[in-house]
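Feature request, filed as a ticket because there's no other form

It would be nice if the structure record came with a short human-readable summary line next to the tokens. Right now we just get the raw output. Example of a typical job, pasted below so the devs can see what we mean:
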Amino acid sequence: MKSIIKNKQQNYELLKYNNFYVFLINTQTKTTFVSSYLNHGMADETKTNAGISHLLEHISTDGWDKCKESCTDYWKKHGTSMNAWTFQTGVGYHINGLNEFQYKMVDYIVSISCDPKIKNARVIKEKKAVHQELLNHKSDPQYDLYNLANKNIFSLEGMQLQDNCDSNINNLNKLNVKMLESWKEKYYGSGNTIFVISGSFSSNKMKAFIKKKLSNYPIKCTVKAHTHFFKPGFKIDYTKNKASEYSTIFLSFYNNYNLGNINYYKILFLDALLNRGSSASILMYELREKRSLIYNCKFYTFDTAYGTQILIEIQCFHKNIKPILKTSIDVFNKIKNNSFDNTIFKSVKNVILTDTYEKCMNNNTVADFYGHQIINQIHEKDIKIFDRKMLIEFMNNIAKKDISDFAKETLNYSNLKITYSSTSQISGLENFVKNLLK
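Raw output as currently delivered:
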């Protein structure tokens, strides 16, 4: 196994073997957390197979031949916790348990991430589970708004369809073992998979075990990166709200930073300045406390290998849409122009530093921290890693102007997408907003 990066002080090492990346970090804990990150997701899907990543993720958790019947029952006896997830540009699997089971857990995660066994009986069972999950999502009052927003925000067909439950349900009936095997062959295993092991273990023994295990799988190439992910340009769009008389506004932006770039973490400052639940939220203060236009607002971040999307969700009465947009843009400008109060900046910075310190020793958090860095650089020739110590130093050195500069990049009006649902469309809204942005 080739050592790519090694840090003795932080007890971690990045290795490469058989075109797999393996990240080992010794945290000196009583438990071991084993995870995998696969380089594919909704972004790689099309109209004819939308939902295939999610379905295969469900099936793969039970795809270890040593389980005999149910992997859930097998691991329940060991007192472990396991989970899997599908996100926009990736699929992940993890398991957490006592150190005495660590080699079994590594065997399990490697197996289901490289060559999960796909049985027709399991396919039928998981189709029913996924169908229920999709119906639950479709019942969301904002379902139509999600789909309209996705159409305007993303260039890739799979991303536009990520919340389209009708398309996913239709495909469920068509997806079969042969199609799932073909998808697995392309995206699972060598070239597209990294493993992270966080816990207390013998480095030499673990390396030997993983090397032997990974030798069983053929070398594959990394799938090509997408060239167009987000749609550039300004746009306002509307869908009629059929569920209630209340209106919902989505304001979406994006930047080019992913979790492999330390500058990504500046997004935490924008979160605090624009989200509900933060005493330092300028947006909440202006919209709710000062003007009584809303009850709350929500700030979401969606990190991908191709950059980070932020989505601000605001619910309100129809008559308040225009003043809310005006006030929101005024707040954005205040942050971009570095004209917000310094005491607010200091408060936000202290909260973020406190949260960063508290997360340092959690095996799950540590694994995700490094795993997302590496998978987001899988197409890069040279992978670079920053550790917790470097992140804390970076955060300590951030100045107020740094956040304003970051806001100028992220809250870029030339790429602003406003999507709203309401009882009726507002005449002249696009010209109204364009005049605000001048």
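Something like this underneath would help us a lot:
The chain has two domains: 2-214, 235-437.
The chain has a mean pLDDT of 95.
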